[in-house]
Amino acid sequence: MKTILHPSSSRGTADHGWLKTAHTFSFAGYYNPERVHYGVLRVLNDDWIAGGTGFGKHPHDNMEIVTIPLTGALEHQDSLGNKEVLRMGEVQAMSAGTGVFHSEYNASATDPCSLLQIWVIPERRGVEPRYEQRYYDVDALGKDWHTVVNPMGQGEAMPIHQQAWFSLTKIPAGTVRNYRSKRSENGVYFFVIEGTAHIAGSALESRDGLGVSEVDEVEVTATTDCFILAMDVPLRLPAIA
After folding, report:
1. Phi, psi of 9, deg, nearest 5
2. How distant, in Å, are the alpha carbons of 97, 144, 167, 191 from that of 147?
3. Is residue 241 part of a domain?
4. What is the pLDDT of residues 53-99, one digit of tens each?
5. Contact, 117 vs 43, CB < 8 A?
6. Rounded Cα distance, 116 and 235, in Å
7. For residue 127, is it within any domain?
8. Is position 98 within any domain?
């Protein structure tokens, strides 16, 4: 088993007043040659956006983008004609493909919102852009790992152009809930959204990340009530990258 630990305190940070952000991997003004990606997982941004502010219209291409709101609400508009509000209990998946413009604003004029935005390098370039958002069963998170994104969009999950699975869970303190890897070629990057846990023998606190590979099943023990995201992704970059 191989592991790589990224403590919350080691992330790149920026405070723009209206936006406070932490980057697990190199992004914008933060660059660390040893923290560019974890396999095809390219970006993991932890954003706080003040009320009445947000990101104006900007382009993306050839990237799979997953957004998970944590508090408040985010208004999304794009060049595909979508105009939606994204809230806690929903996940957004967008394939930028051949190119898309979008904007993201806090849907509230006064209250802040927070979210995770995650970029995944696709297995092929030039796909048709696609946008989707779905509610997930919040109650199900307390029972098992609940997959919200997968390659085929099976079950309640949304599709992604990569052999990747994103799963959420909430584990009560003192409970063990192991995670089983989807593919032997993949690694699993765990991100503790809230709480504390022991994962693969490492003690993790809120906003810590841990990559685990070369093992079929990972032991996850909650030391306090915790909320965890597992990103099961190919470790080898596609030839197109």
Report:
1. -70, -15
2. 23, 9, 4, 15
3. no
4. 999 999 999 999 999 999 999 999 999 999 999 999 999 999 999 99
5. yes
6. 21
7. yes
8. yes
174-205 pLDDT, tens digit per residue, is 999 999 999 999 999 999 999 999 999 999 99
* Half-sphere CA count of 83, side-chain side, radius 13 A: 2
27 DSSP 8-state letter: B
pTM: 0.97
Q: How far apart are CA 43 and CA 21, in angstroms?
A: 12
Residue 16 covered by a domain = yes
191 lies in which domain range? Answer: 2-234
| Separation of alpha carbons 155 and 232, rounded Å | 17
Q: What is the count of structural domains for the chain?
A: 1
The helix/strand/coil state of 82 is coil
Tokens of 59: 């382009």
Q: How far apart are CA 199 and CA 172, in angstroms?
A: 14
| Residue 115's CATH number | 2.60.120.10
